Amino acid sequence: MSFSNEVRKEICSAITDKDRRFACLYGMLLYCRHLGSDRISFQSKSRTAADAFAELFRRVFHEDLACRLSESSSGNTLYIYDITEPRIIGEVFEKYRLTDKERSFDEELVSTSSLGVFTAGVFLSCGSVNDPEKEYHLEFSVPVENLASVLVTLLGDIGVTARTTQRRGQTVVYIKGSESIEDTLTFIGAQQCTLELMNVKIYKDVRNKANRIANCDSANIDKVVAAAMKQQEDIQLIASTIGLDTLSEELREVAELRLENSGMSLSEIGSSLSEPISRSGVNHRFKKLAKIADEIRNGGRLEK
Predict the structure, then answer these.
(1) 41 CB burial (10 A radius; 0-12, 13-18, 19+)
(2) Domain ranges, residue 238
(3) Is the pTM for the entire model greater than 0.90?
(4) CATH number where 142 lies
């Protein structure tokens, strides 16, 4: 099941009383595909949303609607409810104070406590949300442009910044960012889905931090290996030219330990010496060896 459909199912399970049914159906009707005195048409690719529309309409208007199936341009099944009977359309327009002139939101029809349920109806009618594992994105494909500003204002009242864009001639209201989507899902009554999104975000954050640590560790290992290889190269050059026995005792001991133990860290070499020294002390000795090797490469004379 898609994350969008999880949200729809949770929304529908919370529409349990008369006021909620009225407000939710208002959102679904106002933002449906076609709303006119000649025809009302609700369309959805979601069976959950389509069934909710039919059930809410039956409970509010005591009318059973027939569903017909069609195929969208993308090959998905469309669930469509067409209402053409003038008597039923008249009842809808009267109850929700609708007109043919312009679709507009009548705030007096919805109490403040039911604004979230109304917005839930809008989501059921034209909303979708991406799987949070992939992307944080929630949007509403609004059927007429003037309703976009209504939605932006409603979401703004709960502190969510929504933006609009045009896509294939249709106005889209969209929300980015996990926190804004969490607030929106909570507002429309999908609290469990909000928690699911938060859990996904926590998991992704932990995974990203673990990857960063692993990458950092890998980079550090690469540096250590490269440094050890360079040290061995310097020591082998010294051994093959002037010989390790020409070195001071402290440099010779470090050089021999490195040749025998390519995987040893500086700290491990320091603790393995006859007179243990610190990591920085070992590093200082390797720098001296590197200087001798560079002088040999450059044909320089060694300082005694």
Answers:
(1) middle
(2) 213-297
(3) no
(4) 3.10.28.10
